[in-house]
Automatic annotation (TrEMBL):
Organism for this UniProt entry: Vreelandella gomseomensis
Catalytic reactions on record: O-phospho-D-serine + H2O = D-serine + phosphate; O-phospho-L-serine + H2O = L-serine + phosphate
Gene3D superfamilies cross-referenced by the UniProt entry: HAD superfamily/HAD-like
Family to which the UniProt record says this protein belongs: Belongs to the HAD-like hydrolase superfamily. SerB family.
PANTHER family assigned: PHOSPHOSERINE PHOSPHATASE
Lineage of producing organism: Bacteria, Pseudomonadati, Pseudomonadota, Gammaproteobacteria, Oceanospirillales
Main enzyme class: hydrolase
UniProt name for this protein: Phosphoserine phosphatase
Pathway: Amino-acid biosynthesis; L-serine biosynthesis; L-serine from 3-phospho-D-glycerate: step 3/3
Pfam families cross-referenced by the UniProt entry: Hydrolase (PF00702)
SUPFAM superfamilies xrefs: HAD-like
Molecular functions per Gene Ontology: hydrolase activity
Enzyme Commission number(s) of this protein: 3.1.3.3
Cofactors: Mg(2+)
Name of the coding gene: serB
InterPro entries per the UniProt record, alphabetical: HAD-like_SerB, HAD-like_sf, HAD_sf, PSP
Length: 310
């Protein structure tokens, strides 16, 4: 990277003159020079209401993390996404995209929905809260929540799968990733039953999630080993890349939770999507205001390179 060269990408429903002025001030604050500007998407006259501007910046030197932090703060102030990447992105062609599932590909946490249907929603929420306070690690929390699903009728799984609310922009994202030749994978701490449903509907190449143990038509409250936790997600990303003959620089990971951070750190591009503040702060890139198809612009595609979902 020559002299700390960066790519700054602005994503918004509309990039107003005020937004542009504040981004210009951010660039000036760090003494950066704009060497190139591209408009990747223009909401005017487009079926997708997305404005996207990409600028090449020179001169960041050792201030890259400071620039990234300032961009994140400004993003939250303006309610837009301002994403900082290393300009070396242009020297690598990503080929593998790995996704978390719950609250990333779908607008729900399936385990909470299962618990609600089984009449133990509040009990499961309490366990989740203990995990958030750091009293339980992911595996402990997961097993504790799973145990409360014992006796749930298998038919409920099909009902929930049929009603899964897809994340905004997901169908457009998948149509384009498949068309452009990317390999796609779901790496989820959720359940294979629902990942398989998304795979069949949207064409993911492979899925890795937790297998519910069902006996006599009832959920037992157990899952098959190994449990897909943060470490397992990162391992799977690396294993898939190795198997496909790819470097980690050629991988992208997208997730929203703390148990995605290791996967996001391992990937060449790690994107926190509509994530909690702690996850946004630790991830190198974050998208919070637009649909998940905004990932396509972070890779560098223009509106004219893309097609809409059927």
């Amino acid at each position: 990277m020559a002299g700390g060269d960066l790519i700054l990408t602005v994503l918004a429903a509309r990039i107003t003159a005020d937004i542009q002025a504040q981004i210009d001030a951010l660039v000036a604050q760090f003494g950066l020079q704009v060497t190139n500007t591209r408009r990747l998407a223009d909401a005017a006259g487009q079926s997708a209401s997305i404005d996207c501007l990409e600028q090449r910046l020179a001169g960041a030197g050792g201030a890259v993390e400071a620039v990234r932090h300032a961009a994140l703060v400004l993003s939250e102030t303006l309610d837009v996404d301002i994403v900082i990447q290393d300009a070396a992105r242009d020297q690598v062609q990503p080929r593998l995209v790995c996704f978390d599932m719950d609250s990333t590909l779908i607008k729900t946490e399936v385990i909470d929905e299962l618990a609600r249907r089984h009449g133990v929603g509040e009990e499961v929420a309490e366990v989740t809260e203990r995990a958030m306070r750091g009293e339980l690690d992911f595996q402990q929390s997961f097993r504790a929540r799973m145990s409360k699903l014992e006796g749930l009728d298998e038919s409920v799984l099909a009902e929930i799968a049929a009603e899964l609310p897809l994340m905004d922009g997901l169908e457009r994202l998948m149509v384009n990733l498949k068309r452009l030749g990317y390999r796609t994978a779901i790496l989820s701490g959720g359940f294979t039953y629902f990942a398989e449903y998304l795979q069949a509907r949207l064409g993911f190449d492979e899925i890795h999630a937790n297998e519910l143990v069902i006996e006599n038509g009832l959920v037992t409250g157990e899952v098959s080993e190994p449990i897909v936790d943060a470490e397992r997600k990162a391992e799977l990303l690396e294993q898939i890349a190795l198997r496909e003959g790819l470097t980690l620089d050629q991988t992208i990971a997208v997730g929203d939770g703390a148990n995605d951070l290791k996967m996001l750190a391992k990937a060449g591009m790690g994107i926190a999507f509509r994530a909690k503040p702690m996850v946004r702060a630790q991830a190198r890139q974050a998208i919070s205001t637009l649909g998940i198809d905004a990932v396509l612009y972070l890779i560098g595609y223009r509106q004219s390179d893309l097609i809409d979902a059927p």
